[in-house]
Amino acid sequence: MSFSGEVKEELTKHISASRHCQIAELAAMIHFCGKWHESDGKKALEFHTENQSVIRKYFTLLKKTFNIDIGVSPEIWEKQGRSHTYSFVLDEEEQVYKILQAVKLLNAEGGVLSLEQPVNTMLIKNSCCQRAFLRGTFLTVGSMSDPEKSYHLELVCTNEVQAIQLRDLIQGFQVEAKIVLRKKYYVVYLKEGGGIADLLNIMEAHVSLMEFENFRILKEMRNSINRRVNCEAANITKTVNASSKQIEDITLVRDYYGFNNLQDSLREMAEVRLEYPDATLKELGQYLNPPVGKSGVNHRLRKLSELADKIRT
User: What's the CA gap between 92 and 60, in Å, rounded?
Assistant: First the structure.
C-alpha cells in the first residue's frame, strides 16, 4: 500500500464524536464524490469512489449521523477497466431529504443546490468541523507522494471556487497552500514538508504524521551529511588547486630568479612549501622558524606569486 493509501486507511478509522463534525465530513464526501438525480419527482443520492475503505466510512457516517443502516452487498462493487469503482445509490426519499437538508444542499423552495458550489460556511464555522471537512476532502479527492522521494500533497477540485475555499481553509490554520490549473481541474497543493506535516496533524492522522516525520528526519540527516561531504570535497579541491599554483610559482622563481636572491623569510617559505606540498596554510606556518600564523603564510606566498608573475611578463 502506498503512503497516501496508509493515510486514508487511518483517516477512515477516525470517527468524530460530535454530530456537527460528522456532518461536516460527510458534506465534504458528498460535495466531491456525490451525485444526485431526480426522476419522476423522486430524489436519489449517489456516491462513487475507488477506495473501498472510503465508502465504508461513508456508510459509517450515515449510520451514526442519520441512523441509516446500509448492508454492504456485492452489487455495490463495480469493476471499470483495471480499477474498481465502488458505488452506492440511496433512493429512499425521506433519507435523501434528511441528508441534503443536514449538509445544507436544499434551498428555501426545497430544490437541490449544485454540488459544484462551495460547501455552506455554516457547516465549517468551528475549528473542529474544519478539521473534519478537510479529512473528508482528503479521503475523496486527496493524494500525496511517497515522503521518501518527495514532498507533495494535493486535493483535486473540478472548479475554481471549491479550490479557493479549500486553500483559504488550509491557510486559516497557518499552512501555505497554492492552486494550479491542471488540464480541466483546479489542484490545491502543498510542497513543503512542514506544511504537509501540519495538515496531517490538522486532519488528525497522527500515526501517519509520526511516520512522515521519521522520513523527514532521515532525509534531512542524509542531506546534511551530503552537504558536509560536498563542502569538505570542495575545500580539499580548493586547497589542492591553490597548492599546485603556489608550487608552480615557487618553481619558476627558483629556476629563473634563484632562492639566494630572496629575503630569508620568503626563501624559507618557498622551501617549506616545496617540502610539504599537501600541507594547509596553518600547517605550513608551524613548520617555519619561528612559527607564523595563516595570514603571515598567505602574505609570503602572495609575495612569491607576485614575483613569479613579474618573471612571466
Answer: 17
